[in-house]
Design a protein that fits this description.
- By secondary structure, the protein is mainly α.
- Helices cover 71% and strands 6% of the residues.
- It is built from ten helices and five strands.
- Helix 4 crosses helix 8, helix 4 runs antiparallel to helix 10 and helix 5 packs antiparallel against helix 9.
């Protein structure tokens, strides 16, 4: 396999394990053990760890080793601060570039009422769905720097979702309704109302996130 492909494979493999908390926050990593586990030589592993350090997912300290970055209350605040700056701005200024077909598809999914559906029963599917919805908003932005910044916090957001575990069905229902409330004015090209609904959704998401933090604080590596 080409060296470039090995680097990509190592990066994606380690990143996925961090995001899904197979390598939990605060876990010490070891290059030698990673090479054995992933069956990839040390050079691609080292390259992957360097990239992950730049993304804030690992800490590499001389003579102290490699640690999966703990998730702090301060970091969660910073994530939502950036989301509140970027997502409403993008929707208000570039919402017209969002594909109507995709909006209609999400409207259909979020209108789901069956508690036995995949949306309610499969957390991984819900997380992917939620991320994809917000990503279609961000992808409408032609500014590549904004998109790159958002992708960094998106990774951290996904890691947090996996770490905190199950959401209640009540919150799922509320989230679906909030998404629909955003989609409807988007389809009508009413970007001011859509932005207002998005800000409300982000505020509710932040409150729910902190509730999950406080519920799981004793069981996970979450710090202040």
């Amino acid at each position: 396999m080409a060296k470039t492909n090995l680097k990509t494979l190592a990066y994606k493999s380690i990143k996925d394990k961090i995001v899904r908390c197979e390598y939990a926050p605060g876990t010490d990593l070891n290059e030698e053990l990673l090479t054995e586990e992933l069956k990839i030589s040390r050079t691609p592993i080292r390259d992957a760890l360097s990239r992950l350090e730049q993304e804030g997912l690992v800490e590499i300290r001389s003579k102290k080793g490699i640690t999966v970055t703990p998730l702090s209350i301060r970091e969660i605040n910073m994530i939502f601060e950036l989301r509140n700056l970027y997502e409403p701005y993008i929707l208000l200024n570039y919402g017209l570039y969002i594909d109507n077909e995709k909006l209609n598809e999400f409207y259909h999914i979020f209108s789901q009422k069956d508690k036995n559906s995949k949306c309610f029963k499969d957390n991984d599917y819900y997380y992917d769905l939620d991320s994809a919805f917000h990503q279609i908003i961000v992808s409408a932005c032609p500014n590549s720097y904004i998109r790159e910044d958002y992708n960094l916090i998106q990774t951290q957001s996904e890691r947090f979702r996996f770490m905190t575990g199950n959401k209640s069905n009540n919150r799922l229902e509320d989230t679906f309704k909030e998404h629909i409330d955003i989609i409807i004015p988007c389809l009508k090209k009413n970007w001011a109302t859509a932005t207002e609904k998005l800000l409300y959704h982000l505020d509710q998401s932040k409150k729910a996130t902190f509730q999950l933090v406080f519920d799981t604080l004793d069981n996970n590596n979450i710090t202040f």
